[in-house]
């Protein structure tokens, strides 16, 4: 290749659009697709019940206030209408205005009082709803976060799990409106029943006509909600990926990579393409929603004209007198407003119910996926960890990541695991800690199968520096102590910081151990890659665990830092089982035993010197690492 060829820019090729995500299997079917309109409406009482129970658990007092207000609203509405009917007689009668007004005064006063009571009850109901909603949202949101944190780690690899989580998030968002919707629905229902009661006393014919006038709007709202949900369902996977991509593209953590590799244009194109795809699905639904709106308005309008026509006919033909007809006008207006409230809020409750169902289904699913293991507890320190013919295959992968591995680890031993990328080293560490359970074979701690042990008791004895570790946006202190109760003084924290060679860096921070490690936050600070890795090592060493696993713990560290960490590993090795996964084969000198993995199997094992002499894969990899 000539030097000019190296600098030649490749011909501009339009970038490929984001991959289309299509599902098969149980998550590919919209759960509403087969549900009839009647069944959808029949769900509403159950949804109201569920919202009620959630609210009751959150704030009983507020629910009681809310219910009290609903009753007052209903009574006030009935009194208002009855008093209106009473006032109409004198007002529309004969005589001077002052006399007519005087005659109607008691009824007018009652009307004013009832109206004030209704308004007051509405205000207090809003107050109660505002007391319930924030805590209800927090409750549902926290329940979701906890449920995800507690599932078997293997669930993440299963098809659709993360998308179901995205769908459940919508439930949390809708939780903000559900109490208000439910409250509006029930108060409209109460107002409607009372107004309709008064109206049917005036004339029985009016009620069915009014109902027919409003029902099409209700049907339209429910059908529109169904279309919205269908679109939402079709967009879940794309929205999920888009959400992830949004974070990756905009977080300051990857700002350098995005800019210096000129990724911005493609990322923006990609984000837009995905958004356009979601919009296309949404827009494809609009003709349907327009049809629904037009047809329901038409049907409703016809019945409304019939209702007003009927009232006019009753009045003109003298079947009802003028005072009653005037009250009927008000009752019709009230009933109509209340009926519209019922259908609109009912549809909103139904709409919410769809997302709540997704949330509930996900929470149930998460509970089903919580680790189901025995209740056995470990006694005494972990003396021996055995891996017996263990096989593990990730969902959707054709070959096992770990394929028939057997090992025995004893307290005081250091084991090094080496091997090519993808040979199963990290997966083996997940099996050793019980984060994953094997498909075949078993892992035992002191002779007890990890499948029979409460995982919490195992993880309380484990310290892990994973290959890709979290850089928690917490203070330095919490970054070290996270997952472990902290002593009252900072002594042990500084000890761990010292061991990781971080003291100088921490002391330079504006608030020392109290500095927030999040550069995006006001007052926050940031560490370098190697310093972050030292934090991860400090965290694991602070735990003083019985099993210490370090997966490429020093890949970003300078030689001084690396030396320090390995010195410390040796110094504390006597009290624990230590496992080091590394590509720097020189580092395996400190190990008592080295295993070499290839395609999920252990192909070589022994002491460093034996493996160097054996002239196998280890010796070959070592020679390559030294061939510079
Ligand atoms: N969450 C996952 N879902 C599906 N497949 C996975 C997952 N994690 C790992 N794999 C696959 O399992 C195999 C073993 O991966 P593993 O991470 O254990 O390898 P490794 O030896 O630690 O590799 P490396 O040296 O690159 O860290 C690989 O083929 C990888 O693609």
How does this structure look, described?
- It comes from Streptomyces chumphonensis.
- GO terms for molecular function: ABC-type oligopeptide transporter activity; ATP binding; ATP hydrolysis activity.
- This protein is of the alpha/beta class and 628 residues long.
- It folds into two domains: 330 residues, ABC transporter transmembrane region fold (Up-down Bundle); 243 residues, P-loop containing nucleotide triphosphate hydrolases (Rossmann fold).
- It is 61% helix and 9% strand.
- Strands 6-7-8-3-9-10 form a six-stranded mixed beta sheet, sandwiched between helices.
- Helix 16 links the parallel strand 7 and strand 8.
- Helix 6 runs antiparallel to helix 8 and helix 8 packs antiparallel against helix 9.
- The longest helix is centred in the first third of the chain and has 54 residues.
- The radius of gyration is 35 Å and the shape is elongated.
- The N terminus is likely disordered.
- The structure holds adenosine-5'-triphosphate (ATP).
- The count of domains is 2
Which hetero compounds are present in the coordinates? adenosine-5'-triphosphate
On the 0 to 100 scale, the average pLDDT is: 86
Question: Looking at the structure, what is the overall shape?
Answer: elongated
What is the secondary structure topology, with strand pairs?
Layout: H1 3-7, H2 37-58, H3 60-92, H4 97-150, H5 161-202, H6 206-250, H7 255-260, H8 264-316, H9 322-368, E1 384-392, E2 402-410, E3 414-419, H10 425-432, E4 440-445, E5 448-449, H11 455-459, E6 462-465, H12 476-481, H13 491-499, H14 503-508, H15 529-542, E7 547-551, H16 559-572, E8 577-581, E9 593-598, E10 601-606, H17 608-614, H18 617-626
Parallel strand pairs: 3-8, 3-9, 6-7, 7-8
Antiparallel strand pairs: 1-2, 1-4, 4-5, 9-10
Bound molecules: adenosine-5'-triphosphate.
Adenosine-5'-triphosphate is lined by residues 157, 394, 397, 401, 419, 421-427, 467.
């Amino acid at each position: 290749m000539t030097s000019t060829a190296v600098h030649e820019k490749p011909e501009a090729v339009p970038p490929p659009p984001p991959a289309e995500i299509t599902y098969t299997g149980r998550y590919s079917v919209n759960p509403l697709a087969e549900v009839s309109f009647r069944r959808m409406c029949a769900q509403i009482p159950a949804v109201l019940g569920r919202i009620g129970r959630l609210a009751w658990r959150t704030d009983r007092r507020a629910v009681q206030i809310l219910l009290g207000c609903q009753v007052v609203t209903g009574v006030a509405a009935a009194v208002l209408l009855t008093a209106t009917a009473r006032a109409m007689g004198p007002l529309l009668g004969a005589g001077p205005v002052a006399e007519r007004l005087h005659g109607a005064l008691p009824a007018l006063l009652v009307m004013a009082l009832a109206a004030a009571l209704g308004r007051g009850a509405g205000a207090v109901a809003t107050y109660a709803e505002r007391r319930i909603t924030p805590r209800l949202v927090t409750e549902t949101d926290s329940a979701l976060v906890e449920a995800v944190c507690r599932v078997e780690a293997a669930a993440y690899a299963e098809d659709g799990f993360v998308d179901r989580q995205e769908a459940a998030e919508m439930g949390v968002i809708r939780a903000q409106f559900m109490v208000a919707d439910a409250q509006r629905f029930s108060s409209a229902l109460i107002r409607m029943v009372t107004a309709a009661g008064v109206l049917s006393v005036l004339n029985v014919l009016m009620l069915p006509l009014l109902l027919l006038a409003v029902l099409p709007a209700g049907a339209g709202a429910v059908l529109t909600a169904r279309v919205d949900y269908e679109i939402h369902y079709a967009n879940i996977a794309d929205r999920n990926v888009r959400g992830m991509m949004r974070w990756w593209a905009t977080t300051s953590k990857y700002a350098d990579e995005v800019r210096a590799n000129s990724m911005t244009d493609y990322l923006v194109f990609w984000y837009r393409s995905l958004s356009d795809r979601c919009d296309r699905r949404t827009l494809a639904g609009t003709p349907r929603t327009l049809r629904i709106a037009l047809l329901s308005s038409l049907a409703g309008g016809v019945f409304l004209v019939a209702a007003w026509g009927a009232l006019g006919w009753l009045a003109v033909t003298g079947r009802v007198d003028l005072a009653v007809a005037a009250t009927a006008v008000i009752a019709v207006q009230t009933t109509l407003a209340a009926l519209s409230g019922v259908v609109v809020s009912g549809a909103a409750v139904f709409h919410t119910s769809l997302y709540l169902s997704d949330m509930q289904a996900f929470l149930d699913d998460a509970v089903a996926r919580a680790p189901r293991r025995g209740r056995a507890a470990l006694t005494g320190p972990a003396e021996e960890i055995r891996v017996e013919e263990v096989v593990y295959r990730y969902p959707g992968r054709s070959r096992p990541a770990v394929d028939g591995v057997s090992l025995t680890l004893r307290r005081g031993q250091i084991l090094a695991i080496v091997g090519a990328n993808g040979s199963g080293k990290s997966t083996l560490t997940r099996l050793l800690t019980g984060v994953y359970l094997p498909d075949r074979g078993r892992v035992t701690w002191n002779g007890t199968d990890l499948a029979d042990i409460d995982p919490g008791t195992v993880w309380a004895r484990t310290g892990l520096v994973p290959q890709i570790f979290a850089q928690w946006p917490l203070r330095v202190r919490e970054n070290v102590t996270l997952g472990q109760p902290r002593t009252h003084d900072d002594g042990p924290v500084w000890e761990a910081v010292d061991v990781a060679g971080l003291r100088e860096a921490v002391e330079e921070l504006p608030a020392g151990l109290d500095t927030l490690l999040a550069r995006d936050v006001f007052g926050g600070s940031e560490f370098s890659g190697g310093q972050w890795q030292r934090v991860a090592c400090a965290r694991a060493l602070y735990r003083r665990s019985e099993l210490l696993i370090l997966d490429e713990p020093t890949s970003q560290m300078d030689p001084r830092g690396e030396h320090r960490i390995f010195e410390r590993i040796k110094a504390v090795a006597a009290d624990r089982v230590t496992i080091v996964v590394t590509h720097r084969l020189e580092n395996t000198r400190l190990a008592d035993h080295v295993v070499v993995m290839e395609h999920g199997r252990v192909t070589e094992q022994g002491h460093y010197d034996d493996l160097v002499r054996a002239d196998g894969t280890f010796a070959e990899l070592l020679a390559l690492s030294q061939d510079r």
